[in-house]
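Tutorial handout. Part one gives the primary structure; part two gives the three-dimensional structure as tokens.
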Amino acid sequence: MSTEPLTGPQADADSGPDHVPWPAEFAAHYRAAGYWRGQTFGALLDTLARAYADRTAVVGEPAGDTVRWSFAELDERAHRIAAGLVGRGIGPGHRVLVQLPNVAEFAPVVFGVWRAGAWPVFTLPAHREAELRHFATQSEASAIVTVDRHEGHDHAATARAVADAVRSVRHVLVLGTDEFAELAATPPRELPDPDPSGVAFLQLSGGSTGLPKLIPRTHDDYLYSVRESARICGLRPDSVYLAVLPVAHNYPLSSPGLLGALHAGAATVFAPRPDADTAFRLIESERVTVSGVVPPLAAVWAQAAGRTARDLSSLEVLLVGGAKCGRELAGRLGPALGCRVQQVFGMAEGLVCYTRLDDDPDTVLGTQGRPISPDDEIRVVDPDDPAASAADEVPPGEVGALLTRGPYTIRGYYRAAAHNATAFTPDGFYRTGDLVRRRPSGHLEVVGRVKEQINRGGEKVAAEEVEDHLMAHPDVLDAAVVAVSDDHLGERTCAYVVPTDGADPTVADLRRFVADRGVAAFKVPDLVRVVAEFPVTGVGKTSKRELRVALAAHAENG
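Part two.
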């Protein structure tokens, strides 16, 4: 592949801008309020390396050996990778697809890309050629950084196939190869700091249909979210964060995640797998104090905690997010794992909410938190009106569709002008697609997704509400409710259930259990299927899309 210098890719004028800026008056207010501090990720790491030089920054387990780098070592590695990238013509404005599993090298690679002035495009290990080709094409990526093999998949071969198919991709850099070792050994050099108000990286949207959109985040806006997340989650230099979910995902990256831990001078331990055996081993050996999981994984950990011999006493806080954690599951976690539970609700587009560590139990178990910023503007509007604006709020306490804007919520997707016209209101509120109820305290109860609300003969059924009732059954480990087409009612409900170890609940028992909890008859699941496990997305959340596909296939086959 060519190593000639490249100029930064330019946007296609017909597809919209790379970055929709905040209006000038909003930007001025966010700077005056101290949210935006004019700091880049590279400058942040410089500051951290001076303040915490000898403290452990990252811990990983490549090939079974433990890697442990201090802040000073992380800084040095990032400087060398940045110089190596620039020497290969990858510099300001270039896009670099980063597809790495949870390995320690993730941290110096992304900081190296930032130092070079390029933009990481964060992809997940679960993505394959079709998705990567889409991301590379849409972003006009100049390079791909990946591993050779992971979990049986040949990532290097996939990356090279993408490079062959996408003209802009000039470099495939594979960890562990001589080429990457040469790049990472490049002597450091002084490089210009990028504009902190400019795009820092591209993340992927979590939409349930179609290929993900690209989300442009700036140094200014994202670092504000990182700082506040670290503060709200009580991170301190002696904290140890365990990254069990794919770290390129927004949640384990910044809520508070790897970046929040680094900001606090704390260590991050990269778990190669999220299973309870691996996680509990690392909690014991590294004295982990905080971690973040999705609800299905939380349920597995809670069940496994009752039979483990591992010492989990160092664990102080378990964050649960990525999807709604219902009251029943949330109530199990603290007693099972001997720690406090903190709910987190957010999105890669911006808004992040946390329950606070001093919130009362009802708030922690029954809500998904309140926004991190006093300037996070929240509107709860008519969910049946797709054109509802911020002025169309439902009465206090009623369920509605969530709109938001604020100092770290984007004003538009990357090069997606047509989509932005419907995803954002004319005055800049982002239509999140979430159904919520707002308490007087400002805490949000997530009821479901606008598109996941089931319309059963005109009666609206929130999937999450039924899931919460099923999760209260002692024989149910996890539950997921989806819609199934029906000629008479339009849609009916189908509940998929994963039983606890050794349990064998019957369909009749589960339906009776829900009915006996005092819900309306139309909310009792029409169909119930007991399965061994749920299909999951790349970040470990239950894939309701795959459940719906399986249900449709079953119906077609009679």
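Part three, for discussion. The CA atoms of residues 358 and 364 lie 9 Å apart. DSSP finds 18 helices and 26 strands in the chain.
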